[in-house]
Amino acid sequence: MICSTFTPSIYHFHAERPVFQKPRFRVCSSTSSENDRFKIEYTPWLIVGLGNPGNKYHGTRHNVGFEMIDVLARKQGVLMNTIQSKALIGIGAIEEVPILLAKPQTYMNFSGEAVGSLASHYRVPLRHILMIYDEMALPNGVLRLQPKGGQGYHNGVKSVMGSLDGRRNFPRLSIGIGKPPGNMDMKAFLLQKFSPLERKQIDEALEQGSEAVKTLVLSGFSQGISRFNLVQKYKFHKV
């Protein structure tokens, strides 16, 4: 058995005040060799959902990135109860691969302050920083998983790219929320909650997205991800 131990400095939530602790993040893996001659290394993933903190924004279109983190945490048994680098985080694993789930608490436009600090602290390579956020260019409930991309009109992604020295070669999972109807103000649309039909589509997309994230973490951008993107592209097309 091979084990690696990490001792990050973090704060845990308590009712009255945060308590400074140094928990041990331990990742173990088995080898086929009885003498453990070969070391197996699992590079951790930093998986970040973008959104705004507070009950006021819960369930709004702009917060679907937070919702995806909640689904991943539930499915992988990760406890989100720690504040570090201006983010709510949880440490766990998808099978043998260590993951750090994060929800920046800086508000959307300053998300990069948390992401850059976490990536630096845990020494996560750019290719293992997965950004999850809402995308108006996609129909509601349609997902797209890419190895890189630009910032578009998304201020949260813009902030993250700025914290990573303008680099764009990090994976991103876009969650479609559709476009504002008619002449509706974009900000008002983003901070609006979903209709019952839209909510159903989003809930289904979150379940599908969590499985895609698992595939990505375990297998990278494989044929499985290509099939996922193709299915998502035509998911609402009637034959």
From TrEMBL:
One of its GO terms (molecular function) is peptidyl-tRNA hydrolase activity. Pfam families: Pept_tRNA_hydro. The keyword Transit peptide applies. It comes from Capsella rubella. Belongs to the PTH family. It comes from the Eukaryota. The keyword Cytoplasm does not apply. Gene3D superfamilies: Peptidyl-tRNA hydrolase. PANTHER family: CHLOROPLASTIC GROUP IIB INTRON SPLICING FACILITATOR CRS2-B, CHLOROPLASTIC, PEPTIDYL-TRNA HYDROLASE. Transmembrane segments: none annotated. This is Peptidyl-tRNA hydrolase. Keywords: Transit peptide.
